[in-house]
Amino acid sequence: MAVYIKNRNMLAQVFLVIITLGIYTIYWFYQISWEMKNVANDNEASPALWTVLIFIPFGAFYSYYKFSELYEKISVEKFNKWLLFVLYLVFSPAVWFIVQTDMNKRADALRGVIA
């Protein structure tokens, strides 16, 4: 199975978050979770469940932890899952920036291999 990672423009995403009043962040969480699942080749990861759990009290903690755990598996620098998890709770835009920057680098690398 070919791994596809979409290179997302950071400025456009900020604009989308503002225009959709934050709804884009839910879409982003789901999509980036799927991409990370494919990169990690992790059949146990469940992005759809994690996205639904965001709306359930205390379920969001589980979602953010599993997201952080999956990111730790695929991050080039082995970013610590606990640090990412705490960052999610304290200042979530930082998580978006860290994860999206890394995934954009991966997308560029894949495009370089394919092109």
Question: Notable features of this structure?
Answer:
6 helices, 115 residues, globular
Walk me through the structure.
This protein is an all-alpha fold and 115 residues long. It has a domain at 32-95. The chain is 73% helix and 0% strand. It contains 6 helices and no strands. The protein has helices spanning 10-19, 23-40, 47-53, 59-74, 81-90, 92-114. Helix 2 (23-40) crosses helix 4 and helix 3 (47-53) runs antiparallel to helix 4 (59-74).
Gist?
This protein is mostly helical and 115 residues long.
Quickly give the structural class.
mainly alpha
Tertiary shape: globular
User: Low-confidence runs (pLDDT<50, min 5 residues)?
Assistant: none
Task: Report the span from N to C terminus.
Answer: 18 Å
Q: What portion of the residues fall into strands of 2 or more residues?
A: under 5%
Q: What number is the mean pLDDT?
A: 90
SSE topology string: HHHHHH
The biggest beta sheet is recorded as: none
Helix content: over 70%
How large, in whole angstroms, is the Cα Rg?
14 Å
Please count the beta strands (DSSP E, at least 2 residues each): 0
Give me the number of helical elements. 6
Topology:
Elements: H1 10-19, H2 23-40, H3 47-53, H4 59-74, H5 81-90, H6 92-114
Helix pairs in contact: 2-3, 2-4, 3-4, 4-5, 5-6
